[in-house]
Structure formats: C-alpha cells, structure tokens
RNA sequence: GCUGCUGUAGCUCAGUGGUAGAGCACUUCCUUGGUAAGGAAGAGGUCAUGGGUUCAAGUCCCAUCAGCAGCUCCA
C-alpha cells in the first residue's frame, strides 16, 4: 500500500485507452481530464474490481507494473448507490451524535433497500424523533462537506477510538480487526468513524434520504450481548427513485398474504388452535387442492409411487436417524405413552448435567413410583451413566412418540419393509407429508413460517450410478412446476460442504462424487446457478431454487438434497446384480417446499388474483334480477358439471354492484344473465381482465374456460417496475 | 427466545379518566335493473385475558395471551 513511489502508474480506461499518470493521481483527476461534467457526476471508482473513493491516490492500489483498469462510477452504476447509502449512514450517525449524548457507534452497513446504523445510547429513539434526525441530516447534506480518508496504525487507531469514547470500535479493533496492521477512518466535519469505506466525494451527492424504521439489534449479532438500537434509512441519487422505492414497499404491503388471506377468506390462524398452525379456509383449500392434484398427476406420470405415513413416530426412530435429540429445541416435546415420561427425561437431563443431589433423587424415585414406574435396576450408588441407561431402558419399553418433524425416516421404513432388488430402483416414494416443527415464536409469519406444514415430499432411493439421472429428472420437474405457476425468474443455489469443517457425515469420497454429479447436471441444464461452499446440510449437498416474484423479491422454494447419511443410519440395502447387498443413495426433493409457504408466496406473487387453473372461484353467475334466478341456477349447474368452480350472486342489488363485488373478489369470469340469455341459452361472459366479452352459448363459454385451465394459462401478473429497488424477502431454508 | 410497538363491532379504524362511535360488510323492507357502488330501517362490542390504582378505567400501572417490526434461528 505504502509502495506509492514517485514512479508513474499506467491507467487503462474501459474504452481501452492507456495513459501514464503520476502515482498520486485520483479517479477524480482522471475524470477532470476528460470533462468537468463527468467530474461533477463521479461518485466513486472501480479500480480492477475494487470500489474506492474518487479522491484516493491510485498509486496506492497499484501492484507491480501492471496497468490499473479504472472505471468511473456515476449515479447510473449500481455499485455507486451502495457507496451513497453507506455515506448516508455516516450522515445519519453524525446527526444522531449531534442530537444525543453518549452515543456509541457499532456498525453501519448498507442493505438491499438502504442502510442502517447500530447505536448504543441510553436514551430511546422513537419514530417521533425521525423528523428531527432527518432535518439534522439535511442540514449536514446541505453543507456538502467532503468525506476524508486517513489511515492509522492499529495502536494509534485504538487510541483515537478510545479518545472518542467509542468503546465498541475499540473492541472491534481488538477482535474483528486483530489481523490488520493498519485501519482506515473517514472524517466528515467533526464526525470521525472507523470505516473501510469507500465514500462519496461529499455529502451533497445525497439527493434523497428517508428514515425508515427503528429496531433492536445486538452487538455482533449475539443475543446475549449488548442490546443496540438500529436505525434504518434509505438514500437515493434522485427523489423520484426514493418515491418509487416507497411505492414498492407500499405494493409489497398491499400484497401481504396475511392481509389478502384474510380479505379473500383463504386462510386464518386462530390463537385457540395455536401459534403457527394454519387453518385453510374453503377458498384457500381450493387453491391447495388444485396444486396438489396438479403435482400428484405429474408425479404419478413420472414414475413416483404414492405412500402415506402417520403424523407421529417413535422417538427411537428419530434417534436412529440422528434428528433427535440434535434438533430437540425445534421439535415439539415427545408424546409419552406414560405420564411419567417427561419426568424421566428431566431426571436424565439432570444426571447428565450433574445437578441432581441425593435428596432430589429420592424424591424423583418416590414420584416415579406414584406414576407407576418401577425402576428396580436404578441404584443410587451407580454411575450417572448407568442410571441414565436404566431410565432410557424404561423409556424404550414405554413408547415415546414424536410429532414427525420430517418424513424421511418414515419413508426409509417403507423402503425397508420389503427386500429390495436393484431391479426395483430407483424407488420414488411421494407423499404430501405433514410435519411439525417448534419454530421460535418470533419466527412465525403467516403461511410463510409455520409450526405445522405439509411438504410435497418424496424420497428417491437409487444406486450411486443413478444419482445423476435422478437429479436431472428432479431439476426438470421443478422447472416444470415453476413454469406452470408462471414463475420464470429463478436461479439455483448449489450448496456444497465447507472442506475445512468436520460437521459433515459421510465419507469424503461420497461427497466428492455427489458434488460433482450435481454440478455436472446443473451445468448441462442451462440453468443459472451459483455455488455456495459451506452451505450444505450436514448430510449432503443440495440445490435450492431461488425464485424472484413479480415485484422483485427473492424466495427460496423447491429443493433437491442428496443424502448419504440416512441410508447408512437405517442400514438400507438392496440386492445388486452381483447378488450382494448394497447401500442405496437417497434424494430428498420438494418442488413446492411446503404447501403453506408456496401458497403464501403465490398469494403475494399474484396479489391474490390467481390464474384460472388455480383460482378458488373461477366463475360467478350474476343474474340481472330475481326473475333470472332459475336460469342462473341452471347455468351454474352446467358450469359445475364441466368441472368449474362456480358461485351464484343472488343478492338483491343491481348488476353493476354485483360486477363490482365480483371484480373486487378477484373472480376470474362473470357470467351475466338476463331474459335475453335465458331465451337463447347463452351467457354474457365478462373477463376480470378484459371486461365484457359479449353473449355466447354456454357450451362455448365452458370450452373457452376449460381450454384456459388445461393449458394453465397465466394471463396476468401485475408487474411493477421495481427492478432498480429489489427487496429480498426473508430467504428461508427448507432442509430435511 | 430477545428488544420495541400494537390489541375497541365480521373488516378498516376513531375514541387523552366521567353513558362505547364511523365507514364497509350483515339482516329486513322498498327497488327488478344490462357490465365497477339504488334507497330506507335494523341488528351487532364483558373495549384480548387477569389483577391493580382511582369516587370513577377502553383510557393509567403490572402480568399473561396474541399480532406486527427488527434481531437471533430455520434439520
């Protein structure tokens, strides 16, 4: 870094021109050399892939004698927006420090939609304070003061932060930055902050800011650590962009599946049933049935075998699978065949911790007796380990069940139910399997994060040689499913193991084989995909479909996961052509993920207006008056007989009001009928999207709708132009 | 689970310690119509639950439950 010598440096611009400059030349200097207008609009610079300040001497970045490739970033570049927002975070921090006493700064990074800064201060900031903070920020911006970078040795940096009473920054220098010999700071007026940068040339570049929200957070994400106040804001180069962004947030709110689900009677969650337990109302259930029927037919035609399994299973099975007690915190407590079961578990836990004294032990033994558990082999003098074994043996003989947290162990048992030959493989078992997980209360979110969910689950048992082909077929299936519901913007995330970690089960060889098979298939599939080392499940690599909805939010939906672990644990075997026992490979896959999450996502994607094939109310018959009611009933029967989901509006109002209500209820088609239609055996069809289609014979209307259903047309997705300001919805894993 | 905010009619929400409100939806009656709101009347609330303060609590305090936002988590 400090090698910036008097020697000149070579700078190459995107158009290929190569020029020699003094080592202390900045990107701003280069811009000035081209035109003053360009210099005015320069925000930062991209130097060989690294975004830096426009006034950073470029010689500092030179390595050897290679020319530096320089790209000037203006407000048109996406990277520039990030620089702007981070600078806005500094401005916000500066404003907060002016307005409040004893502010300790934590971190202030950018997010997809803006930025935040975490503060430690005793006074509570509330949304009512936003206007005064914003006003202060605007004052700072108006000053157009520059952001000045300077670099200090660690010791000096530590001292500076200490002098500034920034204890969190001191701690960060001591811990997070312990491997850095020098660190950089940025000064803007009286405000100095430890910061990697880069920043905009001066605060005047910020043309639009808004404080968004306030929330609690924790120092370095540690929930047991210090509680901080996180202020969220956003900033843009242009007031129009800010307005568009706020519009998108409104749009997302308007599409909220919890709001639409209530409004259109799709689903509800009742506190009387329990948190995170979704009740599918008739209309929501119709959407689900359409999805299930569609997928079931597809799977049957693609060589899957349907199976069913119960909602509970013995704890021992999950001990074998390894899920219990590893994931115990996120499971519902076991169901005990005996009332003493829970007590024995707590007892065993205390023995394990060594927190049980002899008095407590006597009481527990007496209590166990009351509950009818005789423990003749339990010797108080024995080792804790021996005593726990006695308790465990009793449990094993007195069944304990788990609400099933996943379907795989059950399907493994189905595989095991008969001797298997290689001729039967691949064996593809599918089930809409309902599972229960005790998610933390704070994580629950409508249909998107629930405690009881139904996976469109299947497990493919195959030979190692078949993995590649099965994985390919699964990828094809998932593509087909997404296309059928009109989702065409997605990519695949391939999660691989972290080679330096030892948390993974299964041999190195298996992993290598699996990972290269998956990579090969994805390369051949033409799908856009990225690899994420370290993101794999402990039992195998996986591929997740990341889907972007029509307002630019990204969702994690379908998943395909390889598993070399469960077949091992359950000792699954098939007889090979060599008449010897072999271990199958298992593939978990779920194109929807869960019906709950998928439906919730679709509600938001379509803003509640489902395409005809998924719609819970496809046609509403609107009689002009009571006089046409008989004919309305007759038409409804004909439509129903043709397999359409149809209702009649027999309310007393005028047809205009009935149309309005049907439009607001997002009914796909309206069949308006009056004396004329009754006479001619026709219906006047009205399309939710295109309006009045005129009168036609009922049979013609039916054929038209059936055609639209059969081809699963997605005729309208209300798209907004929000690509510039994409917001990520919470990306949630759906592993097994 | 943690921090903060919220909980009033089926829905959306007013209501700053003194007799519980509006719009929409609903019911009944009138109206019987031709592609986005016809009219009138009526019914509907133990103000989330449980405690407390007060002459008096929807309103103030505490706890519990539930929801929302963020954090943390997500086999």
CATH topology tier name of the largest domain: BirA Bifunctional Protein, domain 2
Assign an overall shape.
globular
The CATH superfamily name of the largest domain is: Bira Bifunctional Protein, Domain 2
- Structural class estimated from helices and strands: alpha+beta
Number of H- or I-type helical stretches: 22
User: Could you tell me the radius of gyration in angstroms?
Assistant: 32 Å
Distance between the termini: 48 Å
Strand content: 15-25%
Q: What is the strand arrangement across the widest sheet?
A: 15-19-20-27-24-23-21-22
Q: What would you say the CATH architecture of the largest domain is?
A: 2-Layer Sandwich
Q: Give the overall pLDDT as a whole number.
A: 87
Number of domains: 4
Work out the helicity level.
Answer: 25-40%
Number of strands: 32
Instruction: Tell me the name of the CATH class of the largest domain.
Output: Alpha Beta
For the biggest sheet, the summary is: 8 strands, mixed
Outline the low-pLDDT stretches. 1-5, 720-735
Features:
736 residues, Threonyl-tRNA Synthetase, Chain A, domain 2, five-stranded mixed sheet, disordered N terminus, RNA-binding, 35% helix, 4 domains, disordered C terminus, alpha+beta, eight-stranded mixed sheet, Ubiquitin-like (UB roll), 32 strands, globular
Tell me about this structure:
With 736 residues, this protein is α+β, with helices and mostly antiparallel strands. The chain folds into four domains: 9-74, Roll (Ubiquitin-like (UB roll)); 79-252, Threonyl-tRNA Synthetase, Chain A, domain 2 (2-Layer Sandwich); 284-307 and 407-605, Bira Bifunctional Protein, Domain 2 (BirA Bifunctional Protein, domain 2), CATH 3.30.930.10; 612-710, 3-Layer(aba) Sandwich (Rossmann fold), CATH 3.40.50. Strand 1 and strand 2 form a beta hairpin. The longest helix is centred in the first third of the chain and has 22 residues, at 78-99. It binds one RNA strand of 75 nucleotides through strand 11, strand 12, helix 8 and helix 20.
